[in-house]
Amino acid sequence: MGEEGKDLLSEHGKGEKEVSQIYENVPRMPLMALNHVSRLCKSVKASVEFYVKVLGFVVIERPPSLDFNGAWLFNYGIGVHLVQKQGDEQFPDADPNRLDPMDNHISFQCEDMNAMERRLIDMKIKYMKRTINEEEGAPIDQLFFKDPDGFMIEICNCENLELVPAGALGRIKLPGDRHNPPLQMRILLD
Question: N or C: which end of the chain has fewer CB within 10 A?
Answer without folding.
Answer: C
